[in-house]
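go over this chain:
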Amino acid sequence: MASTNQELASALRMFSRFFDLIHQPLAVINERGEYVYYNQESADLDGYSIERAMGKHML
């Protein structure tokens, strides 16, 4: 279980770095409709801070 969690955390870090490098607005939501990733380009477009968007419902 710990290995799986470490692998998931590593994959999340890798995708987060990639998403930050593409310089396009990008947001990822979970099955409950909450933001789990929100990059700076999305924040610039929407006028929200990343901190404000994370964990909030997208609607």
